[in-house]
Design a protein that fits this description.
The complex is a heterodimer of chains A (164) and B (555). With 164 residues, chain A is α/β, with parallel strands linked by helices. Chain A contains six helices and eight strands, in the order E-E-E-H-E-H-H-E-H-E-H-E-H-E. In chain A, helix 1 links the parallel strand 3 and strand 4. Chain B is 37% helix and 17% strand. The longest helix of chain B has 22 residues. Chain B is globular, with a radius of gyration of 23 Å. Classes of the chains: A alpha/beta (164), B alpha+beta (555).
């Protein structure tokens, strides 16, 4: 699955993302290396995960209660936000709230991630994008600059147009 | 009016090229149907019964004559010579070619226009009082705030994929001509005890399948917090609005489910994080927005004795002009001026429709007599807001020559009507044949004048685009076993006394709509006291007498 980080195509992704289905089927947590698990799993197995001494991440979606996560994400190096369908825009607001809560490491868009929303996702706070193979083309990088101006603030420059 | 700067123009130009590429990728199969559907809707493009339909944004209803001429050109060149003004004060073209839409958008961009967010699950065109800036009872001109909201909401990265569409109205006068209580957010300009002007914030109004009057969640919002408060409301909605059922996805359903108090609590909690942040409006920004809506250069001689004499003379000698003056013009804040309404409800034409040559004629009149501007109204008419009294006769003559001077504003035939089954793929029933039927049945203008102010709105389906719930007489087209039937409701209002109409009873067949309206009006005439309007009678007597008369002789 192609991955864009900071508007570059990344060939090596150190992270292993384990979704709920894989964990339910008994997929083991690898002993080493960065791992991200669903938020609920993380809450249930927090101590064991932290003892691994490798970078940790969580996978969240719009159905999760995120208040506690916003309050404390100091142990996390990656937060992946799932877009279950093309029309589900909750992830934009979640990214926005995460950035506001001070999270400044990787915020990765997962699921229904495609070219025409990349710029919006980046403005809302995402800095990494996992795109399905069949939808990915190298010209996707141009999507970030299709609209070169914006009225609203972005993560990079939170000032709306009238404060610049 | 607002003039684009380099940022505005760049955004619109680049959006055209972005959409051109999206259309190309769709036509080559690279972009899946469901994604293109969401993307094209956010650019105003529907696929309708006959052809694609392109809805062009008219921000808060304000059009320059240059823009109007461009719309005429688009109608002539890319469509079948006409357009249709909507209740969101936008204009729709019913016959463009899908592949030509990027070229239409490029033409529009030349005159600071676009189709951004005229459809789709995003923040739509903000609407306001069509008489903003000239209305007598106005606290403050709401248009600068509409423009501030336009910029904030345009291509907002976070709010492009909301649970459902989102509509905001702003009103600054005592009379609510923006239907602000039936919007997702209604902003009413109010003055607090300290004399400051701010906004009362209403949330969760709307029509459609579940008509609801908006709830006030904040009695006074200082101006500088306008955007941060809107941001907080939208974020709560984006995160918590239902996405499992599109019929329950509007913010009104969320507000009803949580209750206004809990909804307010969530908004205030979110707002606490951002209220004094970057979105706080600066005095400089408010002043900048206001600088685009200054008073035009009114003629100090407009109220001269000569001008009055000329108007009085025309009124005395031409009874048709006299009727137009009484029904289609309104008092203006400045002595010597009147507000002139251009009726888009001519006899036996689709309400809200306007031809290319009519658009050119209105543009010429705006240039010559009304500082080059026109407004589109929620009632699907146009307005020349600043006409000297001494020029009214010439304006009327030119409008009459273009079939734009029917003196029916505010009367029964000044109907809001959606395009219905003839055009719309959502519609259950036809509407344009029924508006013709009502026009033919009530073709005596003196009778209409005697009946007085009556708002009749007709929608071709439950989505209620023509706002039938908030009309004195609301007509809803329904499909019964393949036949068009019409359900009638009475007593609604979208004004400051907003309320939903009550359903009269079982629906009537297409052939009986006008005769049923006649029976309803007969009850009104029987019951009315001196100077009592239709709306007042319905409020006083309830719908029972109407019901009895309408269904009395039925089987």
């Amino acid at each position: 699955m192609p991955l864009l980080i900071d508007q570059r195509i990344v060939t090596e992704d150190p992270w292993q993302l384990l979704d709920q289905a894989a964990l339910d089927e008994g997929s083991p947590i690898p002993e080493n290396g960065p791992v991200a698990v669903p938020l609920i799993w993380y809450r249930q197995h927090r101590e064991a995960l932290q003892q691994r001494n490798s970078p940790l991440g969580v996978i969240v979606n719009g159905d999760d209660d995120l208040a506690a996560l916003y309050a404390d994400h100091s142990q996390l190096d990656l937060i992946a936000i799932e877009f279950p369908t093309f029309r589900d825009g909750r992830g934009f607001s979640i990214a926005r709230q995460l950035v506001r809560s001070g999270f400044n490491r990787q915020i990765r868009a997962l699921g229904h991630v495609s070219r025409d929303r990349l710029a919006l996702m980046q403005s809302s706070g995402f800095n990494a994008f996992a795109i399905n193979d069949e939808r990915f083309q190298t010209d996707h990088l141009q999507a970030f600059s299709e609209i070169s101006v914006n009225y609203q603030g972005t993560t990079a420059d939170p000032r709306p147009v009238f404060r610049r | 009016m607002y003039q684009y700067n380099q940022i505005d123009q760049t955004l619109v130009d680049e959006r055209v090229e972005q959409f051109r590429d999206q259309t190309r990728r769709y036509l080559t199969g690279e972009l899946p149907e469901d994604e293109f559907s969401a993307l094209r809707l956010m650019n105003g493009l529907y696929i309708q019964r006959q052809a694609p339909m392109l809805r062009v944004a008219v921000p808060y209803g304000l059009l320059s004559s240059t823009q109007m001429r461009k719309l005429a050109h688009v109608a002539r060149t890319y469509d079948r010579g006409y357009g249709h003004f909507t209740t969101r004060t936008n204009i729709q073209f019913n016959w463009p070619e899908l592949a030509a839409v990027p070229d239409i958008l490029a033409e529009l961009a030349q005159v600071q226009m676009h189709a951004i967010q005229t459809s789709g699950n995003c923040i739509r065109n903000t609407t306001t009082d069509p008489y903003a800036g000239v209305a007598e009872s106005e606290l403050e001109d709401p248009r600068p705030y509409c423009e501030i909201i336009r910029q904030w909401s345009t291509l907002h990265p976070e709010f492009a994929y909301l649970p459902r569409k989102f509509k905001i109205a702003v009103t600054g006068a005592t009379e609510d001509r923006a239907a602000s209580q039936v919007h997702d957010i209604g902003l009413q300009m109010v003055q607090n005890a300290d004399g400051e002007i701010g906004f009362e914030v209403l949330v969760g109004g709307g029509l459609g399948r579940t008509p609801i009057i908006g709830k006030s969640i904040r009695k006074f919002l200082p101006k500088q917090h306008l955007l941060s408060y809107l941001d907080a409301i939208l974020r709560v909605y984006n995160l918590k609005g239902r996405r499992d059922n599109k019929y329950k996805a509007r913010i009104k359903i969320l507000v009803e489910a949580l209750g206004p108090d809990e909804f307010r609590r969530l908004v205030e909690e979110e707002w606490a994080h951002i209220r004094d942040g970057e979105l706080t409006l600066t005095d400089a920004e408010i002043a900048r927005a206001k600088s685009f809506f200054t008073l035009p250069d009114y003629d100090a001689n407009a109220a001269s004795a000569d001008a009055h004499a000329s108007l009085s003379d025309s009124l005395a000698t031409d009874i048709e002009f006299n009727a137009w003056y009484r029904h289609n013009t309104l008092a203006h804040r400045v002595d010597g001026y009147r507000i002139a309404i251009v009726s888009l409800k001519p006899y036996l034409e689709a309400p809200g429709d306007i031809t290319d040559s009519q658009m050119d004629a209105v543009a010429d009149l705006a240039d010559r007599y009304s500082f080059g501007e026109t407004r589109a109204t929620h009632h699907q008419n146009l307005v020349l807001t600043d006409v000297r009294k001494g020029d009214l006769y010439a304006v009327w003559q030119a409008l009459a020559a273009n079939n734009l001077a029917r003196s029916n504003i505010g009367t029964l035939t000044d109907m809001i009507v959606c395009p219905g089954f003839d055009f719309c793929s959502l519609a259950n029933a036809r509407t344009l044949n029924i508006s013709d039927q009502i026009n033919e049945h009530f073709d005596d203008m003196d009778h209409l004048y005697d009946l007085g102010e009556i708002r009749l709105n007709m929608s071709g389906c439950i989505n209620a685009c023509a706002h039938h719930h908030v009309a004195d007489i609301g007509i809803l087209g329904v499909d019964k076993k393949g036949e068009d039937w019409y359900q009638i409701s009475l007593g609604g209002s979208s004004k400051e006394d907003a309320r939903l109409g009550k359903i009269l009873g079982r629906s009537v067949p297409a052939s009986d709509v006008a005769i049923t309206v006649e029976k309803i009006l007969a009850v009104y005439v029987d019951q009315r006291g001196e100077d009592e309007s239709f709306a007042q009678v319905v409020q006083r007597v309830g719908i029972k007498p109407f019901k009895e008369r309408v269904y009395a002789t039925a089987h």
